[in-house]
């Protein structure tokens, strides 16, 4: 009997012998990752301080940038990016010669806060409407890129008196199955996601970001200007990882509701895409929206990908100017 007891106890003893060191090792690895993430966040914010000004709207501190004078133009960035996405593209300097260009870091991106809430495109739009009113904007042409196109559409639906015309670039408008939703959503999960984004997610992000950026521009090459000037380290901070994960998780569900209202858009709409966009399917998204919106204009640029404002800045500027030409007269 003694031998039997000895044999029955030994496996449990062996399990305990490796379990404790494994747990200690895992905790040490998470701790090291957390210190690394915190250090990289400090470095990024020291290297890339805010480029604009701040305002607080409905309890949310927003970072915004303005340049130029004239009729207002609002640029709304996509998932994972920030104000600098438009600045680095070079279109702002040119547009600011004729227009008052306004860019707001969407909640959670750049230097804008993102309180815990359900940040749908309509929630963004409500915040944008108040922020623009605070800035003295009564009417504006609005461009939305990628996820930002959903915010632009929601803003036009909720505040038609504010939006004179829309430019929708590389947008996603109809629900489809997307692998990236499943891949990039975990940091949005409360508790588990919080642990991830302060430990392993920034490390993983640094490994996969070059490939993600390449896919965003494919089949075209990543412009040297973007690679050199875009503050990519800001994109890997825990706060921005949460925002990007939440937006990825919401991307398909929010289109289920919004697509029921597209025909309510009676303002001029210019849709511009890279014809070979490998992120948002052009035929199932932008071309379909064009067919659903009588009178909309559709521009597809051959050989170009998702980041159309970087790859074809002159054509994007032309689309914006066309939107101003088609817009009703601004009474202001």
Provide a concise account of the structure shown.
By secondary structure, the protein is of the alpha/beta class. It is 50% helix and 15% strand. Helix 4 (121-134) crosses helix 5 (147-158) and helix 5 (147-158) crosses helix 10 (238-258).
Describe this entry's structure for a reader.
The chain is 50% helix and 15% strand. It is built from 13 helices and eight strands. An eight-stranded mixed beta sheet has the order 1-2-4-3-5-6-7-8, with helices on both faces. A hairpin with a 2-residue loop joins strand 1 (53-57) and strand 2. Helix 4 packs across helix 5 (147-158) and helix 5 packs across helix 10. The relative contact order is 0.14. The model is unreliable at 5-9 and 26-30 (pLDDT under 50).
Could you list some keywords that capture this structure?
50% helix, globular, alpha/beta, 332 residues, eight-stranded mixed sheet
Based on helices, strands and strand pairing, what is the structural class?
alpha/beta
Number of helices: 13
Q: In whole angstroms, how far apart are the ends?
A: 96 Å
Assembly form of the protein: single chain
What number is the mean pLDDT?
Answer: 87
Shape: globular
The portion of residues assigned to helices is 40-55%
Strand content: 5-15%
Question: Can you lay out the helices and strands and say which pair or pack?
Answer:
Elements: H1 2-47, E1 53-57, E2 60-67, E3 71-76, H2 83-89, H3 91-95, E4 99-104, H4 121-134, E5 140-145, H5 147-158, E6 163-169, H6 179-184, H7 192-197, H8 200-217, H9 224-229, H10 238-258, E7 269-274, H11 286-292, E8 297-301, H12 308-311, H13 313-326
Helix pairs in contact: 4-5, 5-10
């Amino acid at each position: 009997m003694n031998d039997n007891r000895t044999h029955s106890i030994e496996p449990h003893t062996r399990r305990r012998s490796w379990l404790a060191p494994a747990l200690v090792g895992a905790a040490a690895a998470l701790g090291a990752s957390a210190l690394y993430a915190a250090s990289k966040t400090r470095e990024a914010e020291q290297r890339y301080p805010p480029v604009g000004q701040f305002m607080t709207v409905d309890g949310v501190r927003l970072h915004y940038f303005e340049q130029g004078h004239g009729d207002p133009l609002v640029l709304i960035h996509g998932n994972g990016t920030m104000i600098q996405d438009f600045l680095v593209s070079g279109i702002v300097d040119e547009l600011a010669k004729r227009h008052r260009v306004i860019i707001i870091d969407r909640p959670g991106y750049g230097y804008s806060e993102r309180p815990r809430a359900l940040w749908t495109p309509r929630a963004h739009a409500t915040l944008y409407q108040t922020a623009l009113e605070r800035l003295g904007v009564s009417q504006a042409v609005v461009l939305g890129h990628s996820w930002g196109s959903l915010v632009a559409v929601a803003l036009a639906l909720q505040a038609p008196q504010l939006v004179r015309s829309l430019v929708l670039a590389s947008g996603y408008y109809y629900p489809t199955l997307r692998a990236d939703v499943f891949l990039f959503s975990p940091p949005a999960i409360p508790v588990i996601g919080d642990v991830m984004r302060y430990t392993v997610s920034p490390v993983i992000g640094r490994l996969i970001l070059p490939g993600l950026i390449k896919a965003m521009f494919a089949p075209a090459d990543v412009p040297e200007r973007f690679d050199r000037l875009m503050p990519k380290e800001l994109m890997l901070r825990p706060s921005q990882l949460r925002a990007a994960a939440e937006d990825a998780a919401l991307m398909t569900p929010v289109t289920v509701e919004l697509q029921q209202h597209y025909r309510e858009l009676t303002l001029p709409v210019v849709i511009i895409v890279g014809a070979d966009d490998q992120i948002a399917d052009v035929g199932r998204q932008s071309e379909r929206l064009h067919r659903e919106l009588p009178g909309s204009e559709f521009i597809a640029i051959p050989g170009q990908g998702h980041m159309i404002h970087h790859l074809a800045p002159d054509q994007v500027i032309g689309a914006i100017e066309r939107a101003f030409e088609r817009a009703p007269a601004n009474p202001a």
